[in-house]
Amino acid sequence: MEPYKALLQLLFIVLLSGWLARLAWRRMRKLNDAIDSEFEAALRRNNIVSHEVLLDRTSRGGGQGLTQVHRILLDDNGQYYLYVHISDSPGVIKALSQERALLALAK
Where are the transmembrane segments (predicted)? Predict the structure, then answer.
């Protein structure tokens, strides 16, 4: 009976680990989808049609739920922008000079 007990415990641990991993993966996918949709909404609000993301820094606060997104963009007209999004607040896009954008990219 003892070998079966150990096998059942191992099976339980493996299944629990798999379930928790799937839960974490679904949560991250949902968070990424929310970040991307807010980014697209901010682009629409600022009438930016075509862009290139030059820098993307995303930090997730883990259990606290605090997420910060900083992106530097270059649109098709040669204008640089800074995009900032922090947790539940709407994302903000501000125009940057080329010098500031290049300084930020160098860090």
Answer: 6-25
In the chain, the largest separation of any two C-alpha atoms, in whole Å, equals 73
pLDDT < 70 regions, the chain: 1, 62-64
pLDDT at 58: 86
* Amino acid 19: pLDDT: 95
d(CA 42, CA 7): 53
Joined tokens for residue 82: 């800074």
Beta bridge partners of 85: 69
| H or E, element range at 88 | none
Q: Are 72 and 22 in contact (CB under 8 A)?
A: no
Is the overall model pTM greater than 0.70, yes or no?
Answer: yes
Q: Token digits for 106?
A: 């160098």
Taking residue 54's Cβ as centre, other Cβ atoms within 10 Å add up to 15
